[in-house]
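Example complex used in Figure S2.
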Amino acid sequence: MEYFTQQLINGVTLGAIYGLIAIGYTMVYGIIGMINFAHGEIFMIGSFVSLIAFLLLGILGVTWLPLALLIVMILAMMFTAVYGWSLERIAYRPLRGSPRLAALISAIGMSIFLQNFVQLEQGAKVKPLPPVVTGGFDLLGEGGFVVKLSYMQILIVIVTTVLLIAFSFVISHTTMGRAQRACQQDMKMAALVGINVDRTISMTFVLGASLAAVAGMMFMLYYGVIDFFIGFLAGIKAFTAAVLGGIGSLPGAVLGGMLIGLIEVFWSAYFTIEYKDVAAFSILVLVLIFRPSGLLGKPEIEKV
Amino acid sequence: MATAMGERKGIDFIGIVKEAAITAFVVFVLALPISGLRTTAEIGGLGVHARWDKVAMYMAIAFVGRIIWSLFLETRGRHRRESSESSIGKHVQKYAHFVGPALIVFAVVLPFMPFADRYILDVSIMVLTYVMLGWGLNIVVGLAGLLDLGYVAFYAVGAYSYALLALNFDLSFWVCLPMAGMFAATFGMILGFPVLRLRGDYLAIVTLGFGEMIRIILINWYSLTKGPDGLSGVPRPSFFGLPFERNPGEGVESFHGFFGIDYSSVHRIIFLYYLILILALITNAFTMRIRKLPVGRAWEALREDETACLSLGINPRNTKLTAFALGAMFGGFAGSFFATRQGFISPESFTFIESAIILMVVVLGGQGSQIGVVLAAVVIIGVPELFRELQEYRMLVFGAAMVLIMIWRPKGLLAFREPTLRLFEVKKSGLFGRKQASEAAE
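Predicted assembly (746 residues):
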């Protein structure tokens, strides 16, 4: 039981990170109907930016932790958002309206480019960071096995929740959110009623990238080690999460992220750690076979 | 921003400079953390090392580049791109009857050309391997319109089946080759059966997942595959039982001994070259023929409109499954060739990048175009080979090129899709000039 609770806590933490990345996928897919393949790389860049920001703050002598975390988060969101914006501008906007495969290849190309760019500029070695947020609570301490709930895990879940609330507010209550939903339904019609479609799509990428940046920051703080390759696997899993939850659905992305996180953690805990990725993909296949539109997605109605 | 500029008359220099300044600023923001502040390993943790010169250099490049690009657009006009898109493809298609055989003749005589040294041959073998893979994937992506991001899985299955069969059961390459193809095809069917109901991007992501799964299994199933260490000592192929070795051992006649020529290590390379050439040509011939069979026509029909096919009584899943299995089979053949050429295989060779490269060969070639695949393989595999010295920048340039080429030609280099079958002969005189064609259509 203690072991189970511990894994549950770990799974939820990991799931929160996946969920934040998955939102970027699901929004972009919802609005322009393509897999933003480079989104995993945006996440990776986010974690690099936050690593660098952290080191700089250390040099500048900002030692009060909450302030440092806040500054790092804002910096990471800002810089990564510019990456998201440029990504759309360079690789996707010229290809809007071309065959889907062309856009996908362009996205894969961008992903390869960003990966190698970071590798060249920052070096191929893994970047370790000593734990910043330490300590935590001990729960359920009987029987020799202590369930630990670290402050870092609490922080991750709280930040994720706050961001999600803020984000759903943006989507449901602001002009920009309304424009975003309108474009998602019918881009041509939205343009006819005076919505700036280009700007809306740009903003979608900016929002997705800033959420991914936060995910990147928390990944870096949680695991304490990053390299230029973390984006690939995290990206695939987050996309899996988005599909699992029903692509285009925001709560679905979070739910999917949680499920993937839990599956991964429980599989590693009770079965074999080597095959945890296989488990995540198998679940994806099963879901797609029995419920192709995902858990919370609307079934696609086909028009002839 | 750029479109607004195009509407103005004359060249708006202030606007261009402003544009360039904005670009430079964006580059500054992009480069500041990642390029400007390099994290370095120091005693007691990481340190940060500022490199302003690099950021300044990137900004200068962006500024100047943007100005040149704007001037180029102003002078050239923006609307030429669309019209020229398919014309090259159309011309090549017209001369396909000459281009194809000419290329084959060139490929056949290549090893005897004076400039064809060992290096050229090695690169050619690489290119041909990708041509074959491209043609195999073309069945799936180009003809059947199924987006497969995990093609490398079948390549891996082929390579490992040959290596394992040859190492454990001592079977020859020629026995293993069809078996490897069969294994890969079976694999394709097993993987394809549950997921082929899915459409487009879902299929893409599931196949990507499968590709990764195969690789993870190859890494972790140590007792069978030796995991990350890989399988070494995979037997080299022999020329109808004549090995390409200087001293093949007691009682075994070697290739050079049999033909009474001096031993040369290049013989094996030439043999491998012809082997992959023949395999690739078989793939091509097979594809060209099967396109004309009902199943081939059904693939193309499915690609265009699945709903219409359903109403015509085509079973989409079985039809897709055949495409998937056949594509996988050729992937398997190419895989066993890869194993015998390298003599060593490990899961490292079968990463996602490989799938992306093969897919890019197909898409860049113009999906469904067989000659396009050849051209694309030469461009993608051959050209980077020339820049071997710039090893570390290779993948960077490769990624950027993928994006730029797709923007430049979203439909591929040779994008021209001639319908395989026409109901009516299209006449130049327009709507009323249509005449019923009996069997004229190919």
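The first strand of chain A starts at residue 127 and ends at 128. Chain A is about 75% helix and 5% strand.
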